[in-house]
Amino acid sequence: MRLPADFSHWALQPGAGMSSYNGTSQHKVDDKGRVSVPAALRHAVEALSSRKTIHITRSGQFPCLECHDLSFIARKTEEFRERQIRGEMRPEDQREKARLFGIAKAADWDGNGRIVLPKDLAEAVGITDECVFYGQGVYFEIWEPKRFAYEQAKILDLPVWEPVE
After folding, report:
1. CA 64, 44, 81: angle at the middle one, nearest 5?
2. Where are the alpha helices (DSSP H) in the chain?
3. Which DSSP symbol is given to 36?
4. Per-residue confidence (pLDDT) for residue 122, from 0 to 100
5. Alpha carbon of 40 to those of 11, 26, 45, 75, 116: distances in Å?
6. Is 60 helix (H, G, I), strand (E, B) or coil?
7. Strand, coil or helix: what is 65?
8. How many Å apart are CA 44 and CA 17, to the nearest integer?
9. Which pTM value belongs to this model?
10. Spatial contact of 131 and 138, defined as CB atoms under 8 Å apart
11. All domains of the chain in start order, with CATH
């Protein structure tokens, strides 16, 4: 199932003072687990962290992957350090730390803008031969297309349908 052509868009354009991750786009995943990261997302990552690296983990809320730039990870590291020093770590902080640091993997893109999706993380959320990149402002998500369509329908309170094949 492919998203309609008019559904594939990106609000960020290269050189547009990118400060957030916006847009939706569907891409093929090759046999080696490589996928092209949309150019607008790559430009935003570089603008926010000056690196060609994303930090990939499982979402704590949805059946998808969550991707952060390294400046976000640095801020979260400092935030957790401060809470720990003050003795203010909560159980939910421990869960978030485990998700952001324990199971996460770093991925650098190559000269063609491709990353290798960590196999264990991709399998955990059902990503095989296609995926959907979905901007969430301060981070972006990577979804298995059918799960994405289903969850979007629920979130946006749209009718949930199964395509006829």
Report:
1. 70
2. 39-49, 70-86, 91-97, 119-124, 145-155
3. E
4. 98
5. 8, 14, 9, 23, 18
6. coil
7. strand
8. 8
9. 0.81
10. no
11. 9-155 (3.40.1550.20)
